[in-house]
Amino acid sequence: MSNIVTIGEILVEILAKEKGKSFLNTQELLGPYPSGAPAIFIDQAAKMGSSCGIISVVGDDDFGRVNLNKLKEDGVDISNVFIDKNLATGVAFVTYHLDGNRDFIFHLKNSATSKLRYEMIDMSIFDDCKYFHIMGSSLFNDSLIECAKKIVDYCKNKGIKISFDPNIRKELLNDNKMKEVLLYIYDKCDIFLPSEAELSMFIPGFSEKEALLNSGKEIVVLKKGAKGCIGAFEGKIYEIKAFESIEIDPTGAGDCFGGTFISCLNQNFGFEKSLIYANKAGSIAVSKRGPMSGNTTLSELEISLL
Amino acid sequence: MSNIVTIGEILVEILAKEKGKSFLNTQELLGPYPSGAPAIFIDQAAKMGSSCGIISVVGDDDFGRVNLNKLKEDGVDISNVFIDKNLATGVAFVTYHLDGNRDFIFHLKNSATSKLRYEMIDMSIFDDCKYFHIMGSSLFNDSLIECAKKIVDYCKNKGIKISFDPNIRKELLNDNKMKEVLLYIYDKCDIFLPSEAELSMFIPGFSEKEALLNSGKEIVVLKKGAKGCIGAFEGKIYEIKAFESIEIDPTGAGDCFGGTFISCLNQNFGFEKSLIYANKAGSIAVSKRGPMSGNTTLSELEISLL
Asked: Pseudo-torsion of CA A260, A261, A263, A264, nearest 10°?
């Protein structure tokens, strides 16, 4: 019974408490925070009022449970989240430089999520699905790539809209197989949600707005972080300025933006309103520490927009 | 040029700051602390004044570097510690119950150390070796088991004493292959350093002291934690009471005990003095937070014994 379905990594995040510290020194950390880009996305989409589900694997440990508790509490269907007995739930360590850049150390490729197999998935999760959201960060082994391709094909055949957020961190982009599957998904997606660097990678040779108008996609939304976003729909460009916000922790803001946007579309809020709500949700997300801590319900968001 | 050589996991430890908290809640943590049982052992053996080396693999990340910096600073030969470009350095998360028990979440089996192959090792590290120390916690895949067996055979042939600390946590003991290799190493070891539970596992059917006297080993030292230790050597039992200490963090205390004991033997301090020094070093280790933070130099240890 999920209108919006996503697939991919569920992990915990451990944050360095103080900015400007490398992991070369023992220091105060904060965590575990529930995390994983698709998990942040689907948590926010559910909080905004759509029926949502996620396909994933976690370990049989408290890092898995802290995520499942959060997702369940926020209304996400976790019946397709499986428990692996051998591998621990993934972990991302994040430390912030004084200039706002982040350094990561990941235990992800080798974590429980890596054990997802297509055969495990109960495809009835797609029975009421209108939007399937997939992110590049989730495609880190052959089995996950197979899942992604098969589900993209399945959704394409059933007329389920495919929403694609490349979400590729340099740490995760290290082989040609991944590039191939990114292009495979890009070709089939209806909704494309890139960052600035990703837009020029997938639609090269154009200026920003030309790229947005010439994509051939139903919807493209360029996420520009603190500079807002630009959307293209039915041959028209919508430029939305960012809302003011004090940045505490940007991790997850793009996923929160995407979750809000797709959840608004699913509730027929219209393109421009969906963009504005997504922008506002992203600005709230960066003001809270922890990847999902700044996720908001629809009513919280509407109050903040008054 | 190492008199004492060990092999095995190098990892970082992340500690829950407050006791009595599970990992189900976001909380203050402390880390990364350099860790890994063989790393703690060899760091302490080197601080005590013996020439020492370790064979291991770390990731190409700050968690690897924080360990290598510490080991190098304390005089350990790290020329046989290799860098794996694909897997991150292992992580152990530890939280303490109010009753002193610990809960762990590990990213170890799937970490950089898992990539150690026998062919990588420069066996000249054993040219001046008198003691090879090996721990059960390091035997978590086929390749590491192969390394252990081949080095044990090599050392046996060369007359290098084999020191064996079973050091098996319930989380790590989950297959028969591991039990087989533990018995293989036990059969060939000269020095056996079990905990109370491990003594009855390897030498069943005896009382404690009978087991110590009937092992057929050159040296057996039973580590009893806060209750001190009992050693058996040349048919005689040596019972050493624990030194008083305020326990802050017991992780690594047994490894520090072992490192001190073997380093003292290597410096010909005699059996009883080596036991007393090891006991004292263990009591200091538990009084400091962080697995290697309580490691002591020989002069620090001698001052504390005045």
From this structure: 110
ipTM of the complex: 0.90
**What kind and span of H or E run contains B39?**
helix B37-47
Strand partners, B233: B219, B236
B278 vs A103, residue with greater confidence: B278
Helix (H, G, I), strand (E, B) or coil at A156: helix
Q: For residue A133, what are its two tokens?
A: 């959201």
Tell me the β-bridge partners of B232: B220, B237
Cα distances from A7 to residues A43, A117, A148, A273, in angstroms, run 12, 12, 8, 26
DSSP tag of B136: G
Domain residue spans of chain B: 4-292
Which pTM value belongs to this model?
A: 0.93
Q: What is the CATH architecture of B4-292?
A: 3-Layer(aba) Sandwich (3.40)
CB pairs under 8 A between A and B: 90
Which residues, including other chains, have CB under 8 Å from residue A8's CB and lie 6 or more apart? A36, A37, A38, A39, A54, A55, A56, A113, A134, A135, A137, A138, A144
Helix, strand or coil, per DSSP, at residue A130: coil
β partners of residue A83: A58
CATH superfamily name and code, A4-305: Ribokinase (3.40.1190.20)
- Residue pointed to by tokens 């995407």: A258
Subunit contact A110:B110, Cβ cutoff 8 A: yes
Cis peptide before A38 (omega within 30 of 0): no
- Tokens for B267, please give them: 């410096």
B-chain CB neighbours of A27 within 8 Å are: 30-31
The predicted-structure confidence for B229-241, as pLDDT tens digits, reads as follows 999 999 999 999 9
Residue A257: strand, helix, or coil: helix
Residue A96 contacts B where some CB pair is shorter than 8 Å: no
Nearest residue to A57 (alpha-carbon basis) of A100, A111, A129, A96: A111
* Residue A213 CB neighbours (<10 A): 16
Tokens of B145: 């088991």
pLDDT bin (cut points 50, 70, 90) of residue B66 is very high
